[in-house]
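Hi there,

I know you've been waiting on this one. I reran it after we fixed the sequence typo, so this is the corrected version. Both the input and the resulting structure follow.
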Amino acid sequence: MRIRLAFCALLALALFDGVGAQAQSLAELRTTLQAALQRNLGRSMLGGALPHVDLKTGTLTRFYPTENHQVILKMGEIYVMCSTLMSEDGREALVDYYITQSDGRFGVIRTEIDNRAPLRALMEAGHATRLE
């Protein structure tokens, strides 16, 4: 009976092509990246807002998360996730989170708020591509 079950299990695995396994891996990666981003936000937020200092003016702005974007970009070992934030005065700002893995854990290594130019340049140079 055990041999028959093992054979059926192997047969079922043989019938699946690699696409299903890749899709599951991609879903797991997305979930892991989203969890890493949420941990980072939990540590970075003060009073429910993400504080941001404009280094040109010295102005402190508090941003509130409103929407996570579905697209994830990949640059070698780095992933980029994007979301939309809203300031206290209602201004929307895009934020890009650069995430990588070390010692089996993912973590945010850079956050760009309202500064999409570096990411656009990386995409145009072919360094950042859509994770699919």
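Quick highlight: Residues 11 and 34 are 34 Å apart (CA to CA).

Best,
R. S.
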